[in-house]
Write a structure and sequence with these properties.
294 residues; alpha/beta; Protocatechuate 4,5-dioxygenase, Chain B; eight-stranded mixed β-sheet; binds 3,4-dihydroxybenzoic acid; binds fe (iii) ion
Length: 294
């Protein structure tokens, strides 16, 4: 049986991809941002070693534009190439999909009443490739398969946080009903607080971001009820990207524990957040399983 073993939250700030690709990660402007991923890179190599990552991200008018705006889309193709975002595609490996698991998840979600758009061919932009770089560094090939799961947070109306959390729960059911023994991670990307344009450009809200990170840990479900207007008011116009982290959180089940956490401001105009979570049995389940082994 496939199982979700960990969830990762991670910003996707494009300048970090640029700094990485141009050998500038040691510069003072970038070093503290990258250092916060050292723990995760060695955990990935030495302990976690996922077979597949379900990578929840948003496209920034690279694969989709005003002609088509899927709320939730799942990549079922064999391969996804890095998008050209104006300066040529990033010099990173192509993303290798897992069509069999992706189609299984698509079927399970659609029969579970989530109307996914199925995508067989698309380019993937910084929303997907920057988190891969932060987690795996410079590699000739990404060390796992990746199932892109794109969420519309660019054009109003994005999905609610509650809907995202429920989608995560449905993804967990889909993964658990896949026969092959696979170690699957789910990543929620984007955020944290940022506004890239207009009079409030540069808005960062450390306190709110850190409360959001706190809320991902343990049994609490308060985050699923944050209204869109609060993201907009408190975290800037692009802070809404954080609803994607709730898909990751919803997929981890009733309770989580934290393995690693990193917060750094600013990178570009944006707050950088990163968290590594694992599902954790709730106290009563842990006691019951202890009793059953005695
Ligand atoms: C920046 C952040 C984003 O999430 C994005 O999609 C584009 C730019 C930035 O901080 O520059
Ligand atoms: Fe973004």
């Amino acid at each position: 049986m496939a199982r979700i073993t960990a969830g990762i939250g991670c910003s996707h700030i494009p300048v970090l991809g640029f700094a990485h690709d141009h050998g500038r990660t040691e510069e003072p402007a970038f070093k503290p941002a990258f250092e916060g991923f050292d723990w995760t890179r060695s955990w990935m190599r030495e302990e976690a070693r996922p077979d597949v990552v379900i990578l929840v991200y948003n496209d920034h008018a690279s694969a989709f534009d005003m002609k088509i705006i899927p709320t939730f889309a799942i990549g079922c193709g064999e391969l996804f190439s890095p998008a050209d975002e104006g300066f040529g595609p990033r010099p990173v490996p192509p993303v290798i999909g897992h069509p069999d698991l992706a189609w299984h998840i698509a079927q399970s979600l659609i029969l579970d009443e989530f109307d996914m758009t199925i995508i067989n061919e698309m380019a993937v932009d910084h929303g997907l490739t920057v988190p891969l770089t932060m987690m795996f560094g410079a590699v000739d090939a990404w060390p796992c398969k990746v199932i892109p799961l794109a969420v519309n947070v660019v054009t109003y109306p994005p999905p609610s946080g509650n809907r995202c959390w429920s989608l995560g729960e449905a993804i967990a059911r889909a993964v658990e009903s896949y026969d092959e023994d696979l170690n699957v991670q789910i990543w929620g990307t984007g955020g944290m607080s940022h506004q890239l344009q207009g009079p409030r450009a540069g808005l960062i809200n450390r306190e709110w971001d850190n409360r959001f990170l706190d809320g991902l840990v343990g049994e609490g479900q308060d985050l699923r009820n944050i209204p869109h207007i609060e993201y907009l008011r408190e975290t800037g116009s692009e802070g809404i990207e954080m609803v994607m982290w709730l898909i990751m959180r919803g997929a981890l089940g009733a309770r989580t524990q934290v393995r690693h956490r990193h917060y750094h401001v600013p990178v570009s105009n944006t707050a950088l957040g990163h968290i590594v979570l694992e599902p954790s049995p709730i106290a009563s389940m842990a006691a019951a399983s202890l009793e059953s082994t005695q």
